[in-house]
Amino acid sequence: MSVSALLGLASFSKLTGAADDDWVDRLNHLYTVILLVIFAVFISGGQYVGNPIECWTPAHFTGAFVAYTKSYCWVKNTYYIPMGESIPVEHVRRDSEELTYYQWVPIILMFMAFLFKFPCLIWRMFNGGSAINLDKIVNMTSSTQIGSHEKRRETIEHIAQYMDRWLEAHRQYHFNALIRFRQRISRVFCFLCAKRDGTYLTGLYIFVKMLYVINVICQFFILNGFMGGWYNLYGFEVLGGLMEDADWRESPRFPKVTLCDFDIRQLQNIQRYTVQCVLPINLFNEKIFIFLWFWVCFVAILTSGNFVFWLWRALFRFNRAAYIKKYLRILNELKGSEDKKFAKKFADEYLRDDGIFVLRLVGKNSNDILLSDLIAELWRNFKNKPMIHNTLNDTDYKDEEAA
Fold first, then answer.
1. 259 closest CA partner among 80, 56, 53
2. pLDDT at 181
3. CA distance 12 to 32
4. What is the distance between the terminal CA atoms of the chain, rounded to a whole angstrom?
5. Nearest-angstrom CA–CA distance, 36 and 66
6. Is 322 within 8 Å of 356 (Cβ atoms)?
7. For the segment 108-123, what is each residue's pLDDT rounded down to a tens digit?
8. Chain mean pLDDT for the chain
C-alpha cells in the first residue's frame, strides 16, 4: 500500500465521518471522544507497559516476594493515610480509605467515550429514514465554496431539484380528521409526528440534542460514583486549593504515596504486613481528571445552550418564516406585501420544519452565500409550480393570517 493511501486512510475527514450535524455535536461526539481515547491509551501504557506501583518492602523479602507484594497491592487496592497521621489500628478505618479507582481508569474513560458517541450513532442510524442524504447535500455545498461560478451554479440547481423532489414526495396529499389533527399537533410537538408532516428530521434532531444534554450531565454522576462521591465539586476544590497555596501540594484525592496491608500464611500462622507504596500513575490521573472536570463543565454549558436554541427554533413557527425572509431580503426577492405573505407560505407549507432544518444545516457547514443561492433556487422553483399552490392548505393559512 502506498504512503498516500495510508495518509488518506488516516485523514481527518475520515475520522470526522458525515457532516450532518453542527459544531456543538462534533464537540461532543468527536473532539471529546478523541480526548478520552488519548487519555485512556496514555494511562493504559503507564499501567501495562511501565511499573504502575512500587512498594517499600521489608529487607528479608526476596525478588519473588517483592513482585508478589506489588502485584497484590495493585490488585487489592491501597489506602491513603497522610504522613502526619498515625496508621489506624482498626482495619475498618483502613478499608474506608481505600482507593478503588486507579486500576479501572482506562476502562471508565473508554466507557465515557462510548457514551459521548452514542447520540451520534442514534442520529446516523435513523436520519436516513427521512429519505434524504444530508451528508451528501452538505458536502456538495461545501465543495462548491472554492470553484468556478458555473460549477457552483450547476451544483446549487442540482441540490434544489433534489430537495424539491424530496419535499413533494413526502407531502400529505390525503386529508381527513386524523391527518388534520396530527398536522396541528405537529406545529407544537414536532417530535411526535412522522416525515409526511415535515417534522421527522427536526424531531429526531431535537431528540438527539436532548440525548447529548442528558449524557453530559450524567457524566458527572458516573465520575462521582466511580471516584467515591467527591468528584462533583472537585473543580471548585482545586481552585480553592490553588488560591490558598500557589504550590501544588499532595492531593488526598490522587495520593502518590499509599499503604497496603496483606497477610502471609505460614503453616497455621498468619502474619500481616503493612508496606508503603508509591503510585506514579496518580501523577497523571490527577491532571487528567482535573482537566476532565473543567472540560465536561464547558461541554455541558455549550450543549445545554445549543439544545435550548434549537428547541426554540423548532417550537415557534415564526422562526421559519423569519429565517427565510432574512435571506430573501438579502436577495431582493421581497418586493411587496404579497411576496412577504408568499414567503411565509413558502416557509410554512412548502419547506416546513424539515426543509428549514436542512437549510440551517447547510448554512452551519458552508456559508451564507451558498445558502442564499440555494434558497433563491428553491424560491424560484416554488413560484413556478402553480399546481403546488392549489394543493397547499390555503384554508389553514388564511385562518392563521387572519388571526
1. 80
2. 61
3. 15
4. 67
5. 34
6. no
7. 999 999 999 999 999 9
8. 80
Question: In Å, what is the CA distance from 258 to each residue of 156, 180, 375?
Answer: 65, 69, 65
Find all residues with CB under 8 Å of 54, minimum gap 6, and list them: 70, 277, 278, 280
Residue 343's Cβ-count burial label (10 Å; 0-12, 13-18, 19+) is: buried
**Whether pLDDT at 395 is above 50:** no
Is the pLDDT at 100 greater than 70, yes or no? yes
Q: How many CB atoms lie within 10 A of CB 182?
A: 17
DSSP 336: S
305 vs 121, 211, 339, CA distance in Å? Answer: 22, 14, 34
Q: Which residues contact 64 (CB under 8 A, 6 or more apart)?
A: none
Rounded to whole angstroms, the Cα distance separating 163 from 169 reads 10
Q: Are 46 and 218 in contact (CB under 8 A)?
A: no
Length in residues, the chain: 403
Q: pTM of this prediction?
A: 0.82
Confidence band, pLDDT 50/70/90 cuts, at residue 387: low
User: What pLDDT was estimated at residue 211?
Assistant: 96
What pLDDT is recorded for position 331? Answer: 83
**Grid cell of 192 as nine digits:** 411526535
pLDDT 10s digits, 146-191: 767 788 888 888 988 988 888 888 766 555 566 566 556 655 555 5
**How far, in Å, are 36, 136, 144, 381 from residue 151 at the CA level?**
41, 16, 7, 19
Cell, residue 384: 413556478
C-alpha gyration radius of the chain: 30
Cell numbers representing residue 106 in the block = 482506562
Q: Exposed (0-12), middle (13-18) or buried (19+): which is 102, by Cβ within 10 Å?
A: buried
Residue 336 predicted with pLDDT over 80:
no
- Asked if residue 210 lies in contact with residue 28, where contact means CB atoms within 8 angstroms, the answer is no
Among 120, 303, 301, 138, CA closest to 205 = 120
Least confident of 186-200, 250-264, 378-392: 186-200
Q: Do the Cβ atoms of 252 and 82 come closer than 8 Å?
A: yes
Reported as a single tens digit per residue, the pLDDT across 70-94 is 888 888 888 888 877 778 777 777 7
- Distance between CA atoms of residues 7 and 15, nearest Å: 12
How many whole angstroms from its chain centre is CA 287? 23
